[in-house]
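fyi for ur records
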Amino acid sequence: MEHRKIVMAVTNDLVTDRRVDRHCRELTVAGYEVLLIGRLLPHSKEVERPYRTERMELRHLRGPKFYAEFNQRVARRIVEEKPDLVWANDSDTLPGCWWAAHRLRCRLVMDAHELFPELPEVIGRPVVRLAWRLINKCLMPRCSALITVCQSFADYYRDHNGVEMTVVRNVQPIDASLQPKAETPEHPVLLYQGAVNVGRGVDWAIDAMEFLPDCRLSIAGGGDLIEEMRRYAGSKPWADRIDFLGLLPHEELDRLTPSADVGLLMLEEMGLSYHLTLPNRVGDFVAAGVPVVASDMPETARMVKQYGVGELMDAPGPRALADATQRLLERWRTLDAAQRKALFAPAREDMDWKKEKEKLIECVNVLMRK
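which gave:
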């Protein structure tokens, strides 16, 4: 094999995208030369990775002009690199990646992290929604391989686009030395980590603190609503029990997560992309041995019910979130260290990145041998 080069594209600034980073690292370890192309935002932090990265500074930051500019520029850049394999992360990079792969006559992988036609910000915009549906319907069947984050997403794309997808879940490597806390403290810390965007229930968590006077809330992440949520939290009498930690690099987040007592996994019913997803945070909390309070969505509910590592909310909203948290804390306090460890063991065995990376590497190896 003369060349083993892969060029990946993603429309974020690379800083916090753990799934893409993990894939690039594993492919690098497997012997492939990887280039990851993203975009540079005005306040993007530096990134240092064991593979090549490039970030494009674009004139347009959002909307149709952004997607057009990004895909045009990334297509040209991929053609310049002449890789053996092009990797599109999500539908928003697929047009440019497909064009480049077609021009180079090389293989194309599409990794679907979201259901773009079913995102909350798209559902009420029929023209935009139709555009994403057409892009997926036209280009996904032309890919050499298709990957997604959970079985529900794979089922959706099979039913809507007639394609079969490999499921590679976004979970973490399990550190055997990292176990659930032996005791729950007098003032438990609830942790929300991830995007502070519409439909993520961050306002529920802020309001729930009214009913959880002994708890603290930590919010680690950034997003479209971060400043609004800061102001909202600051207007509450319990604002001194809410900490905004900002957007943290992977390494800092890995140290933070095990320190929490409860992990929060809220999603509002705002379209199938949210309803069917398996949130990245599920794998993070399971790996860290942190029990979760979660919205009753299919993929998350399956994990919580199967392994008993959390509580599901009975309804949307802050009161239901507080009630589920109280149930979890009461149950968790009845368990000793050995019982907590035993409860988490099956979930950690199932949701170990070692199993998922084998599927990832095998998929690429098969394509490279063709």
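The chain has a mean pLDDT of 95. thats all i got for now
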